[in-house]
């Protein structure tokens, strides 16, 4: 078997969700909302399914969604995107990441990544035959060490894979960090594969800046989005890649032999969703910001050290103030079994030498669930 997969554990999100179910725990582990996205978007999809438009759509995606993605790029970031040559629809951001790495990376290349890492990044980079060059950031400030980042780039660098806003750190890269990344990417004539699935989930008045908008980056960046996060429909797996034609073309070739297409009714419904007014997008971030605050207040009262959260679905907390030891996986196990609340150990996002006293809670849940979890934790500590 392929050594990339041999001996790999099951992804932590699946493991913790199964564990939560088995113990009747409130699942604040895996990142998904516990209420489905807008009913009008779901109805739109249902009508498409029932009307009988269920055969292979165009390989690059239905025109409605490709134009909607191009329009959203203009509307939110003032990017001029040609929907016909610069937008590809994929089955989720995960397929987009897989296609981008398969298409652009050759054996022997190096790919720069910032650790903590979303679960699929390392296996996908390794499967492409590349050597990962990891740059660490750690809680509570998740600050990038400029020298370490510069040192990770070299003559073999083919790409940087950047997740912004970042899971699980809930970090939003500031302008200076993005400028440094852009500068290094241009200097090494590399690509930037940007996982921006949380592009509409930023808090405290922050606005998302795609790396693609920085000088020199338009032609070398692949920008990935997902309807899962933007419309609270994580099970749909509708994603999209935006990139210059010369980059998107090989990615499209990888896509055509991976999934080829994505369900057309879901694509059309997402296209309709992307056209929603500013009030939709404001409410999405605003509601989640209120949930972040609700959970942060409660966890802090219980005695956890709450780490700042600038975006995403996730709040990381320090368990050290409660004297829970330095094995975060064991802490998550205990919390599930004894307290009835499931979180994810942050060490799962590091390859090695992870801090052992941080766990991640997902707050994209009904307030009653958040309050229920807080009650259980308060009783347990
Ligand atoms: N990237 C990040 C950072 C994520 O958190 C997730 C999970 N939602 C994905 C990619 C996967 O997105 P999708 O479900 O669209 O494949
Ligand atoms: N992105 C989600 C998380 O970080 C999980 C998605 C998945 O399970 N693949 O929890």
UniProtKB/TrEMBL annotation:
Alphabetically ordered keywords of this record: Aminotransferase, Pyridoxal phosphate, Transferase
Cofactors (names): pyridoxal 5'-phosphate
Transferase found in the keyword field: yes
Entry's Gene Ontology cellular component terms: cytoplasm
InterPro entries: Aminotransferase_I/II_large (IPR004839), Kynurenine-oxoglutarate_AT (IPR051326), PyrdxlP-dep_Trfase (IPR015424), PyrdxlP-dep_Trfase_major (IPR015421), PyrdxlP-dep_Trfase_small (IPR015422)
Gene3D superfamilies: Aspartate Aminotransferase, domain 1, Type I PLP-dependent aspartate aminotransferase-like (Major domain)
GO molecular function: kynurenine-oxoglutarate transaminase activity; pyridoxal phosphate binding
Domain Aminotransferase class I/classII large: 26-377
Pfam families: Aminotran_1_2 (PF00155)
Family: Belongs to the class-I pyridoxal-phosphate-dependent aminotransferase family.
Protein name: Aspartate/methionine/tyrosine aminotransferase
Organism, scientific name: Bauldia litoralis
